[in-house]
Structures are given as structure tokens and as C-alpha cells.
Amino acid sequence: VLTAVSVSQKKHKLWVVYSPGLEPNADDLRLLKDFHQAGTRDFFLHYQPKYSLSDNAVKGAEALLRWQHPQLGLVPPSKFIPLLEETGFVTQVTRWVITETIAMMARHNLCRTGLVISINVSTRDLTELGFVSFMRHAVKDIDPHCIQLEITETGLIDDSERALYVLSKMNDLGISCSVDDFGTGNSSLSYLSKFPVSEIKLDRSYVYDIANNERNHKIVKSTIELAHTLGLSVTAEGVEEHETVEILRDMKCETIQGFVFSRPIPESDLIEFLKSSPKLKASGEA
Ligand code: C2E
Ligand code: MG
Ligand code: MG
Ligand code: MG
């Protein structure tokens, strides 16, 4: 049963149609209403560095959206992104994130350093008809090879025909694609590898406790092996402990991301961080 809810605003009414899975609650409605009254000044990006275990160097960073709400303070993306996805408003947000990230890269000449910056896109973005031409225009003044799109596993299977089309267009442009939150969507790696993606990002829920959880250790190890067999590289997200880094290094995981290396940080901190060329110690090093 679809429920139509109207959010009254001073000038106009906003109709939101909820799918059966989403229970409209007062908090969500307030966030949606506030989103429409918010200006871009209420949003900003943090960037979380990624570390290459194979090169022992910073590999790039991921742009992560932040909403500074005037009354509620910092609202986490896990609270508002699903709402924006559900209502379709996420597409305008994604365009803003892409434009801001590319402007940041241009300001600091990041492409010249060979770093790759990744941006999260949702299923809604892939099904939006103007997305391919928007991307073509967005990367016209930078090297597209330094942009990567992160698409969740469900984003690929919800409308796989469309996803296949958009991803191959991104490949033509030189933009690489990664499967985000891998392991949470019940699809197989062999199926996902049919999409033109170059990397999978192992979800934090599998990665964080591999030092103590034998089951997750086995899942992560065999997933990395299968990914390599299929020609995909692997990023492990949510790495918090040095012990985990060493295990992932032994498993030949190419890239890690997590608090052990860096939290998501503002632009100015990212630039300082990149200049300092930080290294994670390899096993046996003092
Ligand atoms: P994600 O893309 O899987 O991003 C990773 C999330 O894990 C980020 O949360 C990051 O801060 C967090 N994280 C990273 N390392 C660690 C760690 O070592 N330990 C722990 N506990 N957490 C870690 P964040 O920034 O709250 O974002 C949550 C999700 O919201 C993202 O998951 C992504 O799906 C979505 N999101 C964020 N920004 C955007 C955006 O611009 N567009 C879209 N479509 N989605 C976004
Ligand atoms: Mg991501
Ligand atoms: Mg992820
Ligand atoms: Mg995740």
C-alpha cells in the first residue's frame, strides 16, 4: 500500500509518495521539509583518505557528504541519504557533490599527483536520464581517470540493464567504478564482475573484526581471492586496528580505508595530510 503524505510549506506543498518499505515518521518528514529549506551552505564534504598496501602510499580519498542542520547539528548521511534516495531528491545532491569534488581537485591540482577521488552515487542517479551527459560535462576539464564512482551492490542489481549501460559509458569516459558495501546485498561476485567495475569495497561489517572472528576472516580471505581471480582489486573499508591491516596485507588486499589511517577530514586537512605522505608501518618495522 502506498501512502501519500503532504508536507505543508509556506509557499507550496510537497508531495512525497512512500514505498511500502519506508514508514513515514515525524523525524523523516521534518528532515525532508528542512532539506527543501536548506541552502547549499548547510552542506559540505569531508574526504576520507585511502591507503594502498601494495604501494605503501596514499592512493586517494572518498568524498562523504555532511549536513550541518541549523537546529539538529550534524545529521549523518545514513539518516538523510536513504530519504533522499526514496524521494528522488538525491540526484540533485549527487550533482552538487560531483561538482564540488571536481572543483576541489582542480583547486589543488590533485589529478597531477595520480590520486583517485571517489564519489558515492545511488541507484537513482544511474536511472536519471541526464546522468551520462552530466558526467561527460563534469570531467571535461580534468583527467577522468582520477575520478571513481562508488555504487552499492543493490544499485547494480535493482536495474541491472540501466546500470550496465551507464557503467560502460563511464568506462568510455575513463571514469572507473567500484562496488560499494560489497557483501551486504546477497549477490554473487561472479555476477557483479559482469559489470564494468574494477574494484569491490568489502563492507565494514565483514572487515572490522577479522582478527577475532574466524567466519569473517574466511569470508574476507576467499572474497579477496575470488575478486583477484576475476581481475578485480579490493578495498577493505572500516579498518580500525593495525592487526587488521597486517591480516589484509597477508591476504593481498590492495587498498584499505578506515580510522586506523584517517577519519573523514575537511579539505584543508586533506591537503596537509597528502603533503605529509603518511605511511602505515609494515609488519616487522619499528
Ligand atoms: P560508505 O560509502 O560505505 O562510506 C563509508 C562510511 O564508513 C562513512 O560513513 C565513513 O565515515 C565510515 N567509516 C570509514 N572508516 C571507518 C572506520 O574505520 N570505522 C567506522 N566505524 N566507520 C568508518 P558516513 O560518512 O557516515 O557515510 C555513510 C554512508 O552514507 C556512506 O557509506 C554512503 O553510503 C552514504 N553517503 C555519504 N556521502 C554520500 C554522498 O555524497 N552520496 C551518496 N549517494 N551517499 C553518500
Ligand atoms: Mg562509499
Ligand atoms: Mg562503503
Ligand atoms: Mg559502508
Automatic annotation (TrEMBL):
<protein>
    <submittedName>
        <fullName>EAL domain-containing protein</fullName>
    </submittedName>
</protein>
<feature type="domain" description="EAL">
    <location>
        <begin position="25"/>
        <end position="278"/>
    </location>
</feature>
